[in-house]
UniProtKB/TrEMBL annotation:
Domain of life from the UniProt record: Bacteria
Natural source organism: Candidatus Caccousia stercoris
Cofactor(s), names only, from the UniProt record: Zn(2+)
GO aspect biological process, one term: carbohydrate metabolic process
GO molecular function, one term: zinc ion binding
Protein name: Ketose-bisphosphate aldolase
Amino-acid positions noted as binding dihydroxyacetone phosphate in the UniProt annotation, renumbered to this chain: 195, 229-231, 271-274
SUPFAM superfamilies: Aldolase
UniProt cross-references to NCBIfam families, sorted A to Z: cbbA (TIGR00167)
Residues noted as binding Zn(2+) 2 in the record, renumbered to the chain: 120, 150
CDD domains attached to this UniProt entry: TBP_aldolase_IIB
Length: 383
């Protein structure tokens, strides 16, 4: 079926009391696998391409320095892959821009085929954040595309997003933000952190989403709350990576119990990236351990060289530059290259499948209203 916007998927989650996982992808094989595992559980699916993932998928291996043109190219590549695998899928699929850093990045994603975008103005003063977010909302809603904003600062590192300390979201400011911008969803800061080093035994401040939800209900405002920086960082995978020659230190996530307890407090979308990165990295290291002759293979030996050189890294983008055509377009996915993409697919299924079950979206696909972008644009125009 055609891709849908984020709004109806989160409306269903709010109405029925579960959370929708949102999973980041950086390669065609990952997009295929995320959709496939959601189909297996008959769950709606939210695939996310981060702003710099678009640069990477545009062929920029030094994606931190990606240009707008790189992002435009990459957005189309991701969207083409997601549309290909969603076309005959029985579940609703959303393609969402994660951490759009400016208006132009959001426009590039929408023009490339994204059906939902996040504009991250959380580092700006409140009024400037409102102004930027409102500008994106106006552009996106006219095209039926939903918008997520952010208020409050999460500590940690993820792509270009960095902050040394967290600033918790003020519930009253969140309500004002919804009212002034018209966003469909808002990422809040309530104790989560970006990256793999969140600290041991993190306790989320669930009173923050509770307060926001109660105030919004009182004011008659509509909108979903989003939990960023919510990877669980499975310790067994970290241990396996290190046993396979990796050197990952101080990697701790948010416990599944803490995340599940936040759902009835008002959290409807939970973002996960690091768990997928870890599972894929473990599988790649395992492949070369079990098949040492592949370390000198003409097609994939370069992947091993980067794995061996970057022992502390767990972002697959650090290891995949030798296979960029396969990453970007899915071409050349045969022979020994297929061993790499199989490892990636299995890692995605392992990380994502568990959380679909934990977050409660199993069997929820029929609950989502299948409104196309044109229909959503007409609805937004009436609001």
């Amino acid at each position: 079926m055609p891709l849908v916007s984020l709004r109806p998927v989160l409306d269903a989650a709010m109405a029925h009391g579960y959370a929708q996982g949102a999973f980041n992808v950086n390669a065609v094989a990952q997009a295929e696998s995320v959709i496939g595992v959601h189909e297996m559980f008959r769950s709606p699916a939210i695939l996310q391409g981060a702003d710099l993932a678009n640069a990477f998928m545009g062929g920029r291996t030094d994606f931190q320095n990606g240009t707008l043109e790189d992002k435009k190219k990459g957005a189309k590549n991701i969207a083409d892959a997601v549309k290909k695998y969603a076309e005959h899928s029985p579940i609703p699929v959303v393609l969402h821009l994660d951490h759009g850093r400016d208006f132009d990045s959001c426009v590039a994603a929408i023009e490339g085929g994204y059906t939902s975008v996040m504009i991250d103005g959380s580092s700006l003063p409140f009024d400037q954040n409102v102004e930027l977010t409102r500008e994106v909302v106006k552009y996106a809603h006219a095209r039926g595309v939903s918008v997520e904003g952010e208020l409050g600062v999460l500590a940690g590192v993820e792509d270009h997003v960095f902050a040394a300390n967290s600033t918790y979201t003020n519930p009253l400011s969140a309500v004002e933000f919804f009212r002034k911008t018209g966003v469909d969803a808002l990422a809040i800061s309530y104790g989560t952190m970006h990256g793999a080093s969140k600290g041991k035994n993190v306790k989320l401040r669930r009173e923050i989403p509770i307060a926001i939800r109660e105030c919004m209900n009182h004011e008659g405002l509509h909108g979903a709350l989003v939990s960023h920086g919510s990877s669980t960082v499975p310790q067994y995978i970290v241990d396996e990576i290190n046993a396979l020659g990796g050197a990952i230190q101080n990697a701790y996530g948010i416990s599944k119990e803490e995340l599940k307890a936040a759902i009835p407090c008002g959290i409807s979308k939970i973002n996960v990236d690091t768990d997928i990165r870890l599972a894929v990295t473990r599988n790649l290291r395992e492949l070369f351990r079990d098949r040492p002759e592949l370390k000198t293979d003409a097609r994939i030996g370069g992947v091993w060289e980067l794995l061996d050189k970057n022992r502390a890294a767990f972002d697959p983008r650090a290891f995949l530059p030798p296979l960029m055509d396969t990453v970007m377009y899915g071409t050349g996915d045969d022979g020994t290259v297929a061993l790499i993409t199989d490892a990636m697919r299995r890692g995605v299924r392992e990380a994502v499948g568990t959380l679909i079950v934990e977050f409660g979206s199993v069997g929820r696909a029929p609950l989502v209203e299948l409104a196309g972008l044109d229909e959503m644009a007409a609805r937004y125009a009436k609001e």
